[in-house]
Amino acid sequence: MTIATNSGLPENLAELEARLSTLSHDDQALKIIQNFAQKLGKTSKRQDLFNFKGALVREPIIYQDVLSRGLINADEDPFTLLQGDIISTDAAYFLGERITGMKFAVATSTCDLVPGRREYAVLLRVQPIKTNDPNAKQLLGELLKFNSTQRMYLPPLPGDSSDVVANSLVFDGIIQVRLSDLLIATRYASLSLVGWRIFGSLVRSIIVRAGASEVRMRSSIQELE
């Protein structure tokens, strides 16, 4: 079967790679976030914006609520959790050891959080930043620039103690949990739309980011073989 040239579809593997090169490993989204944060100016201004109610996080999004408001179709899979939700559970494991007394962000895509679709889910740790932390000021400054892909800034969350000034969503280290256990976890918050976009941009950058030297190396190998 011949693909018509005016279909806009790649006709061979070389064209497929060229088309994917600006999509699969592109870091443009991360640069947009960093430039936006830089434009805001001082750390305090950035924190004020991202701490504003509903800016990055909001109250948990409830399936029955969005269904009754006509924001989701009745024939779509019902959800208990959404990607990016901030939760707590005592059933999560890191390198074989159970982690308790901590909040997590759900990293698994929402469509894979449907009961029976997956056996396991992926979480990321949420670490509080407290007023008595001698490195709090420096850490906040770094987080609010979004220059590092190791962490993401989050404001104080429901259930946090009064001495928590912010939270750090840690991307270094994958936490595992059985989906059946995760679905009965305590929900504290959902990400806002822009919070979810920032979260997705960082996750994508961590997993599939490509340096220019790697692109050159792989391209050269391809040409020589």
Explained architecture:
This protein has 225 residues and is an alpha+beta fold. It has one domain (31-205): SH3 type barrels. The protein is 34% helix and 23% strand. It is built from 8 helices and 9 strands. It has helices at 13-20, 28-40, 43-51, 63-68, 136-143, 179-182, 193-208, 212-224; strands at residues 57-58, 86-88, 92-94, 97-99, 103-106, 120-130, 151-154, 164-178, 186-191. A 7-stranded antiparallel beta sheet has the order 1-9-2-5-6-8-7. β3 (92-94) and β4 (97-99) form a beta hairpin. The longest helix has 16 residues, at 193-208. Mean pLDDT is 89; it is low at 1-6.
Instruction: Count the E strands.
Output: 9
End-to-end distance: 28 Å
Strand order of the largest sheet: 1-9-2-5-6-8-7
- CATH C-level class is Mainly Beta
Q: Taking Cα atoms only, what radius of gyration do you get, to the nearest Å?
A: 20 Å
Characterize the biggest β-sheet: 7 strands, antiparallel
The gross shape turns out to be: globular
| Portion in beta strands | 15-25%
Mean pLDDT: 89
- Determine the number of helices (DSSP H or I, runs of at least 4 residues): 8
- Helicity, as a percent range: 25-40%
Oligomer: single chain
CATH level-two architecture: Roll
